[in-house]
Prior knowledge:
The protein is an alpha+beta fold. Helices cover about 35% and strands about 20% of the residues. One of its GO terms (biological process) is RNA catabolic process.
Amino acid sequence: YRKHEWDKHGTCAATLEVLNSQKKYFGKAIELYQHIDLNGCLSKAGIKPSSSYYKMTAIKEALEIFYGVTPKIQCLPPEEGEKAQTIGQIEFCFTKELQLVNCTALEGGSNPVQARLKLGTSELSVCDDTLPTYYPSEVQ
């Protein structure tokens, strides 16, 4: 897994001195991950991993208020007979100076440094704002 991440993303990031070795790249990723503290942020907004459902708009709003940027949230669609989608990945984007930036602002060709929080390997898609949303404890 680590080799795949380095080959796919790290070699691009290595053009920046702060990320130009595997040790720096993964070390900085862990540092940013701990700094973001996603579970802590959502918990303060009353959104906790549980069997109850949340509104996707409430989750987005909490993240945008707390971090001041729009992350990219992807979900697993509802399984057959179910009504709720499941958060599968929350992605934060950073400038080359490692400042948080709206992920939506970067979709026109430039490659931001991305911090991915991932669950499983199923097909993820953009979350549907109208569906109830399950926040599983595996998203960290």
